[in-house]
Amino acid sequence: MAGRAVFRQEFPVKGGDFAKAGAAACRIKELLKEMGIDVRTVRRAAIASYEAEMNVIMYAREGRMKLAVKPGEIRITVIDKGPGIADVGLAMTEGYSTATAEMRELGFGAGMGLPNIRKSCDAFRIDSELGRGTHLEITIHMNGHNT
Amino acid sequence: MISLKDIMAGINGELLTPCGSLDIPCPKVFASDLMSDVLSSAEPGTFLVTGLANPHVISTCAVADVAAVIFVQGKRPEAAAIEQARTNGLPLVATNLSMFDACSRISALFKGGRRGR
C-alpha cells in the first residue's frame, strides 16, 4: 500500500478557454480540503495547480491535470500538447515571459508562473519538447518545507 | 484590527456582494493588478486592492484565500463574476478612488488603528 495513490482524479484543460480558467485548480482545492488536509498545504497545492492550469490555457492546445494523493504526499501532473518551451532554464527565470498583451491584461503572463509553481511545491520536474508539449510533475509533502 | 466596515467607510466603498457581516478583520492589504504576485505574495486572509476587474481576479482570490477585494477607479466586475464571488463568500467592494488614494486612506486607517491600541 505504501507509495500507492489512494485518491486519483483527472481534469481536462482546454487551451484558450479563459472562461473556465481556474476551474480545475478550484476543484483540486475543494477535494483536498474535503480530505481534511492542512489548509496551508491545500493552499500551496491550489496555487501550483492554478499557475499550471493557466499555463496550459495560455500556451497549449489542450492538457490534462492529474491529482494523486497518497499518505503524506500530493502529486499534480500536468501534461499538455502545445508548442513546448524552447529554453526551460530561461522560462524558470522570474520575469521572463512570452505572453501576449491579451494574457497580460488578464493579470497573468508576467513571467511568474513556473517560478511560483516551484516556490509552492517541494519537488518539481519539467520536461518539454518543442512542437510537442510540456510535462510537469509537482510534488507537495504534507507538512513539507513550505508549510 | 481594522475591519471591512472601517475600510468601506474610509474609501466611500460600495458593497457589490451581499455579506452576512462587514466585521471581517483585515490583517493585511495587498495592492496589485498582477495575479501571479497575489498568488506568490499575498498571505491568507489578506484584502486585495486592484484595478483589474475580470473573473480571474475572483478565481485567484479563491485559490489564494484572499478575504475581500476592493476594486478601485470605479471598476466593477461583470455580473457573473460578482455571482461567483457571492457563491465563494468573497466580499467585493467598489470605490471611485484611484489606487493611490484608496491605498493612502487604508494606510491611514491602519496607522490610526495602531495609535488606538
Unreliable segments of 5+ consecutive residues of chain B: none
What is the CATH third-level topology name of chain A?
Heat Shock Protein 90
The 3D shape of chain B can be described as globular
Helical residue percent of chain B?
Answer: 40-55%
Provide the helix percentage of chain A.
25-40%
User: What string gives the helices and strands of chain A in order?
Assistant: EHHEEHHHEE
Radius of gyration of chain A, in Å, reads: 15 Å
How does CATH name the architecture of chain A? 2-Layer Sandwich
First-to-last CA distance of chain B: 9 Å
Could you characterize the architecture of this molecule?
The complex is a heterodimer of chains A (147) and B (117). Chain A has a 5-stranded antiparallel beta sheet with strand order 1-2-3-5-4, with helices on one face. The longest helix of chain A has 21 residues, at 39-59. In chain A, 34% of the residues lie in helices and 29% in strands. Chain A is globular. Chain A is α+β, with helices and mostly antiparallel strands. In chain A, β4 and β5 (133-141) form a beta hairpin. Chain B has 117 residues and is α/β, with parallel strands linked by helices. Chain B has one domain (4-111): HprK N-terminal domain-like (Udp-n-acetylmuramoylalanyl-d-glutamate--2,6- Diaminopimelate Ligase, Chain: A, domain 1, 3-Layer(aba) Sandwich). Chain B contains 5 helices and 5 strands; from the N terminus they run αββαβαβαβα. The longest helix of chain B has 18 residues, at 99-116. The radius of gyration of chain B is 13 Å and the shape is globular. Chain B starts with a helix and ends with a helix. The interface between A and B is medium-sized, with 24 and 19 residues.
Which features characterize this protein?
A: 147 residues, alpha+beta, Heat Shock Protein 90, 34% helix, B: alpha/beta, Udp-n-acetylmuramoylalanyl-d-glutamate--2,6- Diaminopimelate Ligase, Chain: A, domain 1, 14% strand
